[in-house]
């Protein structure tokens, strides 16, 4: 094959936050399928933004990479994150005329507004196909925020986004709810849905790590775990109501919230001494710790505020089903996670008016290990068939072949 692919993204290996890992693993998997892949990325870690990654150029698992200097801006600060985006986009525009020929260019959505680069790609690389893999939607994420100044700027940027989207050849969304938002821009690009895969993909359903299970859920028959970020896009009110309803029934069901985020303290502050079926855990640093924690739970808690539907699709969903966990999703019925959960019978959707019904179901499950086992098998097999890294990257390779052949 030997077609040449160029990837633009802010972060890349060895950074281990989600978008860095997905872009890095996509590049690695494309190389394994015969593609010649180069990545142009930033030279700093996302979280440890003061630390420079070296060397500037090199090869990782067959992927050639070059790192663009980026200032030490804090990516958790909105203005500094936007300045990083502007810096990288301008840096890449300057380099475009000198980058050589590529059959296709893939851009991620980190940094925000990286699609500003697209009209310049089409100016300097007219025959090159351009594909965008959308993980987060901007300016929608700004508009949905509560800051009026950012909302105003976001609305202005929507018209610019529409112009850029109409220059793309393919827009890859990570869920049908995200596709609906892209479609509203009336672009002419081909569309594809390719969700992110789990970083933990065991060959068989994991046995629970008993020490971790006891630490998280005490002696409960059924363990429900929320792990990862609890930020502005997430809500937990329905989970607290469900936990308290189960506590009233003396159900053998334990809840654990483990992770970090700007809403984590808010959640902890709402817990009272009566909430003895709720515990908390810290963020884990390694895949081994993550695997032990995930194996310890029976079901995974996942949430997304209704107004964030389509703007973000939590990747922890795929981590859950990859190891054979059913899910309790709190969010809109129009969310991709709700659609997939219903379509493949992967768990329950939690809403204010379904608390008691779901509490009934969880009481039955807690007293019937056979139901838990069957739910695990179904989730595990569904992931392998529809959402695994191999399945998604095979689809990526096919999509690239078809896109390039249509030049």
Report what the structure shows.
It is globular and about 65 Å long. It has 2 domains: 4-197 and 388-405, 3-Layer(aba) Sandwich (Rossmann fold), CATH 3.40.50.2000; 210-386, Rossmann fold (3-Layer(aba) Sandwich). It has helices at 18-32, 78-95, 118-124, 140-143, 148-165, 176-183, 210-217, 237-248, 264-269, 287-296, 316-322, 336-343, 355-366, 369-386, 389-405; strands spanning 4-8, 36-42, 57-60, 63-68, 104-107, 129-133, 170-173, 190-193, 222-229, 253-260, 278-281, 299-303, 326-330, 347-350. The protein has 407 residues and is of the alpha/beta class. Helices cover 41% and strands 18% of the residues. The mean pLDDT is 91. Helix 7 packs across helix 10 (287-296) and helix 8 packs across helix 13.
Low-confidence region ranges? none
- CATH level-4 homologous superfamily of the largest domain: Glycogen Phosphorylase B
Q: How many beta-strand elements?
A: 14
Spatial strand arrangement across the major sheet: 3-4-2-1-5-6-7-8
Please report the distance between the alpha carbons of the first and last residues.
16 Å
Based on secondary structure, the structural category is alpha/beta
Main beta sheet strand tally, sense and closure = 8 strands, mixed
| Range of strand content | 15-25%
Fraction in helix: 40-55%
Q: Say what the CATH topology of the largest domain is.
A: Rossmann fold
* CATH class categorisation of the largest domain: Alpha Beta
Task: Specify the number of helices.
Answer: 15
**Based on the structure given, which CATH architecture of the largest domain is correct?**
3-Layer(aba) Sandwich
| Shape call | globular
Whole-number count of domains = 2
- Radius of gyration over alpha carbons? 22 Å
Give the mean pLDDT: 91
Order of helices and strands: EHEEEHEHEHHEHEHEHEHEHEHEHEHHH
């Amino acid at each position: 094959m030997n077609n040449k692919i160029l990837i633009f993204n802010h972060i890349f290996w060895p950074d281990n936050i989600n978008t860095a890992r997905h872009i890095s693993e996509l590049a690695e998997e494309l190389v394994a399928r015969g593609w010649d892949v180069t990545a142009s990325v930033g030279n700093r870690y996302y979280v440890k933004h003061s630390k420079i990654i070296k060397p500037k150029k090199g090869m990782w698992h067959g992927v050639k990479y070059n790192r663009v200097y980026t200032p030490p801006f804090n990516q958790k600060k909105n203005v500094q994150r936007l300045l990083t985006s502007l810096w990288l986009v301008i840096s890449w525009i300057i380099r475009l005329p000198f980058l050589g020929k590529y059959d296709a260019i893939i851009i991620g959505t980190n940094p925000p507004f990286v699609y500003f680069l697209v009209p310049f790609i089409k100016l300097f690389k007219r025959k090159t196909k351009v594909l965008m893999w959308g993980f987060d939607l901007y300016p929608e994420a700004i508009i949905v925020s509560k800051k009026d100044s950012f909302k105003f700027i976001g609305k202005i940027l929507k018209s610019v986004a529409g112009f850029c989207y109409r220059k793309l050849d393919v827009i890859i969304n990570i869920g049908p709810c995200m596709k609906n938002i892209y479609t509203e821009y009336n672009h002419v690009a081909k569309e594809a849905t390719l969700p992110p895969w789990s970083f933990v993909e065991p060959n068989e359903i994991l046995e629970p790590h008993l020490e971790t299970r006891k630490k998280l859920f005490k002696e409960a028959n059924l363990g429900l775990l929320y792990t990862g970020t609890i930020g502005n896009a997430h809500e937990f009110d329905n989970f607290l109501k469900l936990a308290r309803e189960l506590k009233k029934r003396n159900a053998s069901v334990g809840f654990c919230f483990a992770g970090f985020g700007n809403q984590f303290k808010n959640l902890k502050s709402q817990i009272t001494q009566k909430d003895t079926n709720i515990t908390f855990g810290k963020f884990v640093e390694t895949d081994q710790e993550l695997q032990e924690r995930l194996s310890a739970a029976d079901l995974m808690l996942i949430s997304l505020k209704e107004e964030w539907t389509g703007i973000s699709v939590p990747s922890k969903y795929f981590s859950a089903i990859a190891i054979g966990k059913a899910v309790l999703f709190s969010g809109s019925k129009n969310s991709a996670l709700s659609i997939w959960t219903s379509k493949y019978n992967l768990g329950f959707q939690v809403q204010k008016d379904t608390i008691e019904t779901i509490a009934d179901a969880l009481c039955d499950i807690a007293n019937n290990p056979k139901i838990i086992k069957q739910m695990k098998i179904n989730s595990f097999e569904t992931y392998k068939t529809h959402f695994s890294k191999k399945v998604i990257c095979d689809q990526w390779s096919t999509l690239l072949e078809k896109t390039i052949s249509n030049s």
